[in-house]
Amino acid sequence: MDTKLSLFKKVVSSTQGKMAANAQHLLEAVKLALAQDWDGAHRIAQDYSDPTANWIHAVLHKIEGDAWNSRYWYARTQGKQYEDYEDPHTELLSIQRVLKFD
Predict the structure, then answer these.
(1) I need a labelling partner for 100 at 20 to 30 A (CA). Which of 18, 19, 24, 61 fits?
(2) How many CB atoms lie within 10 A of CB 42?
(3) What global pTM score does this model have?
(4) Tens digits of per-residue pLDDT, 41-94?
């Protein structure tokens, strides 16, 4: 029983560490996007497959003017929609807040 609990704690700890590292990378992607470095932000976002990374990816394609590709990525965000935000800058600021408080 103690072995299972110990293993569980290790898995949880490892997962939390990875999530924190991912959040830092994704915050960097948002920072780059806000600085109008689309390519830099895109390189980071496409390296991850979680819903927040997909949301960043979707916004980047919205900025690019590629609505079809943007909608493709929104479909992988667990509920975010292309129409939720009219302004990509405001949306990036929302993503930034989410990442800082996760």
Answers:
(1) 61
(2) 19
(3) 0.80
(4) 999 999 999 999 999 999 999 999 999 999 999 999 999 999 999 999 999 999
Query: Please, how many CA atoms are within 13 Å of residue 71, restricted to the half-sphere of its CB?
Result: 4
Cα separation of 59 and 97, whole Å? 15
> Count of CB atoms within 10 A of residue 30's CB?
26
Structure tokens given for 1: 């029983």
Residue type, 19: M
Give the 3-state DSSP-derived string for 48-83, with helices as H, strands as E and coil as C: CCCHHHHHHHHHHHHHHCCHHHHHHHHCCCCCCCHH
| Residue 67: CB atoms within 10 Å | 11
Q: Both tokens of residue 7?
A: 């293993």
Q: Which two tokens stand for residue 28?
A: 């960097």
The tokens describing 63, both together, are: 């900025």
Is residue 37 a contact partner of residue 55, using CB atoms and an 8 Å limit? Answer: no
